[in-house]
Amino acid sequence: MRKKELRVVVSFATTTQAMAMEETAKAAGLKGRLIPIPRQITADCGLAWSEPAQNRVALELLMQEKKLQCDQVVELVI
Predict the structure, then answer these.
(1) For the purposes of burial, counting CB atoms within 10 Å of the CB of 32, is it exposed (0-12), middle (13-18) or buried (19 or more)?
(2) What is the domain partition of the chain in residue ranges?
(3) Running DSSP on this structure, what letter comes out for residue 14?
(4) SS3 20
(5) How far is CA 1 from the centre of its chain?
(6) Per-residue pLDDT averaged across 39-44, rounded?
(7) Does residue 12 contact residue 71 with C-beta atoms inside 8 Å?
(8) What's domain 6-77's architecture?
(9) What is residue 20's predicted lDDT score, i.e. its pLDDT?
(10) What are phi and psi of 63, to 5 degrees?
């Protein structure tokens, strides 16, 4: 079982947005991954990007720079 830790979770309205996030983040060397949307938040597509909390600033800067759209960005212990 995976140890729970504080993560930044980004939800998306569409699967296309989630896939664009995955491709862009992997190319930038971020350590996150796509996950099923946690119950604590909602999203239309059912996917979210999960990233270690210490990478939040880098993640948000990347999303701004690449003009990636999302529904919300939250921190959760998952």
Answers:
(1) buried
(2) 6-77
(3) S
(4) helix
(5) 21
(6) 81
(7) yes
(8) 2-Layer Sandwich (3.30)
(9) 98
(10) -65, -40
3-38: per-residue pLDDT in tens? 999 999 999 999 999 999 999 999 999 999 999 999
Contact 68, 21 (CB under 8 A): yes
Report the Cα 27 to chain-centroid distance in Å. Answer: 14
Task: Indicate the length of the chain as a whole number.
Answer: 78
Residue 10 tokens read as 């980004």
pLDDT category at 42 given cuts 50, 70, 90 is confident
Chain centroid to Cα 66, Å, comes to 14
Q: What is the average pLDDT score of the chain?
A: 95
Strands (E), the chain: 6-11, 33-36, 47-52, 72-77
For residue 51, which of 3, 9, 17 has the smallest C-alpha distance?
Answer: 9
